[in-house]
Amino acid sequence: MRESIEALGRSPVKFRAVIAVLAVWATPGIISPGLTAAASRPPKTRVLVTTRCSPGCGASVGVYKVSPRHIYLSDDFGGTLTLRWSSWHMRSATGEGSSYAALAGGHITAHVRVSLGEWANGEFLYMGIRFTHVRNHDSTTGSVRPMRNHYEKLGEKFDEDGQPAWLPLDQLG
Prior knowledge:
The protein is mainly beta. About 15% of the residues lie in helices and about 50% in strands. The strands form two sheets. Strands 3, 4, 5, 6, 7, 8, 9 and 10 form an eight-stranded antiparallel β-sheet that branches. Strands 1-2 form a two-stranded antiparallel ribbon. Strand 4 (about 80-90) and strand 5 (about 95-105) form a beta hairpin. The longest helix has 15 residues, at about 10-25.
């Protein structure tokens, strides 16, 4: 390689100096730490997906994720949502998928469209869920009955036990 550099009329010392300057310039954060790719993007807003026991299980703590595949709600408010997100931004997110909620003697399935909004401290505070193609599957008779489509507006608050939860807006005082 030394012969090829000298054949081009360049000194090996100058060539090494140029390579060293390029290596430092290409290393993220060396020249300008604020211009690295990770630092230039705003943080993503997260959503409450479920709760889990804190260490020692003295209380439940919220589990938050960005663009989660599943959100676990009470069966009263939609059950397990399995979602594909079409957009996820700092202030809003939209997606669609399915809902599965267990019932005594059966379960309910539905197609859902979900929108998230109103954020604070990097977390979404409101969730709107539009339920369509709702079906009640009765395990005792084997029948599947269509049900009324509906819309649920939930807000993230702490429930009576101090656990983070999604609750209907009319219960949020």
